[in-house]
């Protein structure tokens, strides 16, 4: 009886570790997608009263536009391989990936007005991806043209055509 319990707990532990590991890997992939192609390409903040920001003094009522897309593509923070798709840059978290400049990674904004859908969206994406990848493999179709395009949000101008292969039931 004790042996069965120990075996059961060991299996559960291995399963939990595997799920944790898969979840981290998916976060790395999602983060890298959102770094290269953040749906929201800039944030806006209005200054309520005069404020000092580094060497700048910003008067009240000024609107600040924070260019997330530009920050996500800045070699100073991301290194010379900034344009490459490298999920492994997030292997040790956002702080390491941004070289201690977390303000340079803003797919969901920042501060008290950041995205309320952050947890929901990332969890949903991970669940959907893991369900799809259990049964299907997909690659880009020959007709796919890579053309990120900004119209309210950043999106593929001609859609994303993929070839889907069923690999198990
Ligand atoms: C990939 C999906 C999503 C992305 C990339 C995204 C990104 C963002 C960004 C950049 C902001 C502005 C944050 C700021 O100004 O600091 C925002 C705000 C917001 N998002 Fe999302 N979002 C996503 C999905 C969702 C979903 C699914 C919901 C609702 C369930 C949602 C609800 C909101 C709301 C209500 C705000 C305004 C928050 C406030 O002003 O206090 N978002 N989102």
Automatic annotation (TrEMBL):
One GO cellular component term noted in the UniProt record for this chain: membrane
Classification lineage: Eukaryota, Viridiplantae, Streptophyta, Embryophyta, Tracheophyta
Compartments, as annotated in UniProt: Membrane
Pfam families tied to this protein: p450
Cofactor: heme
Organism of origin: Rosa chinensis (China rose)
Keywords: Heme, Iron, Membrane, Metal-binding, Monooxygenase, Oxidoreductase, Transmembrane, Transmembrane helix
Binding residues for heme: 115
UniProt superkingdom: Eukaryota
Name listed for the protein in its UniProt record: Putative 11-oxo-beta-amyrin 30-oxidase
Membrane-spanning residues: 12-30
InterPro entries named in the record: Cyt_P450, Cyt_P450_CS, Cyt_P450_E_grp-I, Cyt_P450_sf, Cytochrome_P450_Monooxygen
Bilayer disposition of the protein: Single-pass membrane protein
EC top class, as a word: oxidoreductase
């Amino acid at each position: 009886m004790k042996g069965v319990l120990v075996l059961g707990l060991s299996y559960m532990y291995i399963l939990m570790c595997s799920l944790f590991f898969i979840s981290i890997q998916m976060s790395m992939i999602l983060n890298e997608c959102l770094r290269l192609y953040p749906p929201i390409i800039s944030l806006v903040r209005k200054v309520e009263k005069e404020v000092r920001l580094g060497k700048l003094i910003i008067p009240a009522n000024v609107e600040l536009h924070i260019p997330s897309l530009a920050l996500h593509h800045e070699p100073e923070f991301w290194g010379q391989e900034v344009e490459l798709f490298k999920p492994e840059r997030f292997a040790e978290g956002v702080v390491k990936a941004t070289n201690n400049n977390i303000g340079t990674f803003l797919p969901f904004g920042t501060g008290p007005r950041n995205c309320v859908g952050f947890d929901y969206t990332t969890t949903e994406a991970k669940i959907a991806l893991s369900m799809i990848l259990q049964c299907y493999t997909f690659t880009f179709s020959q007709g796919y043209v890579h053309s990120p395009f900004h119209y309210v949000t950043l999106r593929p101008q001609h859609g994303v055509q993929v070839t889907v292969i069923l690999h198990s039931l």
